[in-house]
Structures are given as structure tokens and as C-alpha cells.
Amino acid sequence: MNIFSEGNVVSKSEFLKRYNSEVGSIFREKMARFPSNKCDGCNENCTGGCPIYWKRYNPDKEVKGKLHNS
């Protein structure tokens, strides 16, 4: 899934269109395969497996998985 068009980042509306497309679905599925070591399969609706999300947020603070259950 490419967020660039003619060398520039696409608009928010164009990004959402791409993100919600079939290609975007495949992209999200691939990204979800990289969970934090703390994830314990809680099945909550989250972006815990997305490495792009972890560029902004710290999984040690955000994921309340098995390390917080002790």
C-alpha cells in the first residue's frame, strides 16, 4: 500500500480510500503479524501488531498483556 502519489503524501481522504480497499486489507493483515512480546492473544480490537503504530507509541506502556497480569 503506497501512501505517496507523484512524490507527495496522499490526502487524508485518499489515504482512507486506499486503507479501506482490498489492498489496504492485505496490508493490515500483513502488519498484524508483528505483535509485541507482551501480547497474549486477548482478542481485543487493537493495532498491537502494527510496527507503524509502534513508531508513535511504546508497546511497553500501551500493551497490558501477560506482563501486566501478574
Overview of the structural elements:
- The protein has 70 residues and is mostly helical.
- It has two domains: 1-31, no CATH class; 33-70, no CATH class.
- Helices cover 37% and strands 6% of the residues.
- The protein contains four helices and two strands; from the N terminus they run E-E-H-H-H-H.
- It has helices spanning 12-19, 22-31, 53-56, 59-62, and strands at residues 4-5, 8-9.
- The protein has a two-stranded antiparallel sheet.
- The longest helix is centred in the middle third of the chain and has 10 residues, at 22-31.
- The N and C termini lie far apart (39 Å).
- The relative contact order is 0.14.
- The model has no long low-confidence stretch (mean pLDDT 75).
Terminal CA distance reads 39 Å
Ranges where pLDDT stays below 50 over 5 or more residues in a row are: none
Q: Outline the biggest β-sheet.
A: 2 strands, antiparallel
Give the overall shape.
elongated
Tally of domains: 2
Q: Percent of residues in helical segments?
A: 25-40%
* Percentage beta strand: 5-15%
> Which class best fits the helix and strand makeup?
mainly alpha
Average pLDDT works out at: 75
- Using DSSP, what is the number of strands? 2
The helix/strand order is EEHHHH
**Cα radius of gyration in angstroms:** 15 Å
If strands are numbered along the chain, what order do they take across the biggest sheet? 1-2
